[in-house]
């Protein structure tokens, strides 16, 4: 049965609201484009994180790091991440770019639109637009939180050359308004958004596969432990998800959709990332409509 704990729905509503408040300072001040505003938030979050205080309120906290710091600035040398089931030490600025992966995927075939499901305030879509996605492509973002959708729309309003629309989307009850014209060929992607949904519904993939005549979907989601344990990081990942009540049925539901003939699974790669959280490594799954 599809399920997501209310505490996580509330957490992300508050978290996006706080981020939106921070970005609004730059939006209201004028002179910034959407990518610059998103860049200000990225800069904030590299060395700070949102965490609950003693009263349970979300606040910005300076991120702690066991790494040595540079002499000229309070910037860590290294960070702990994970790759292929192993915890590893890498330079602080090492990150796997899902955005660049999506941009490159767009370049190999023609697509009329790109859709991110669980897009937050749309940062990935704006980065794709500015870094090679193209002005002819239509950009769509589905997001559960009201604060995320509102902020994404505000950013889109200052980008007249970007054909973007943002709408409410619930992974527990996936559906799409018929007013949206996605075109004939659509690239859909998700990035660490299904992770917070304990169980996605059996029809999730079938619904998404039917939004256009041809749909390809790329999932950058932390599901690797659901398929195989590659090492210590995989086990830590599994325990972390069970503790948080996060997703445990993505891989099973994906496989079932393939067996039912709802989709054709094209590729998968487990724990393929050097992300910011060693307990939450990204895996990749790619499928297309039948």
UniProtKB/TrEMBL annotation:
This is SAM-dependent methyltransferase. It comes from Campylobacter vicugnae.
């Amino acid at each position: 049965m599809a399920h997501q704990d209310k505490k996580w729905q509330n957490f992300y509503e508050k978290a996006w609201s706080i981020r939106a408040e921070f970005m609004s300072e730059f939006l209201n001040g004028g002179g910034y484009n959407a990518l610059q505003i998103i860049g200000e938030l990225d800069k904030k979050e590299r060395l700070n994180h949102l965490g609950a205080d003693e009263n349970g309120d979300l606040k910005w906290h300076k991120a702690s790091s066991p790494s040595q710091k540079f002499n000229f600035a309070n910037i860590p040398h290294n960070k702990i991440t994970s790759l292929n089931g192993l915890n590893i030490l890498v330079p602080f600025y090492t990150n796997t770019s899902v955005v660049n992966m999506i941009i490159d995927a767009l370049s190999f075939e023609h697509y009329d639109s790109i859709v991110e499901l669980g897009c937050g305030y749309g940062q990935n879509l704006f980065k794709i637009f500015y870094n090679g996605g193209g002005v002819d492509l239509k950009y769509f973002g589905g997001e559960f939180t009201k604060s995320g959708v509102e902020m994404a729309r505000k950013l889109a309003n200052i980008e007249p050359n970007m054909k973007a629309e943002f709408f409410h989307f619930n992974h527990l009850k996936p559906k799409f308004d018929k007013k949206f014209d996605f075109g004939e060929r659509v690239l859909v992607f998700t990035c660490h958004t299904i992770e917070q949904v304990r169980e996605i519904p059996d029809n999730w993939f079938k619904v998404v596969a039917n939004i256009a005549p041809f749909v390809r979907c790329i999932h950058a989601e932390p599901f690797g432990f659901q398929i195989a344990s590659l090492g210590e990081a995989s086990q830590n990942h599994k325990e972390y998800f069970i503790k948080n009540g996060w997703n445990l049925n993505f891989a099973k539901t994906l496989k079932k959709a393939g067996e039912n003939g709802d989709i054709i699974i094209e590729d998968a790669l487990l724990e393929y990332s050097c992300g910011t959280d060693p307990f939450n490594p990204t895996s990749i799954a790619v499928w297309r409509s039948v």
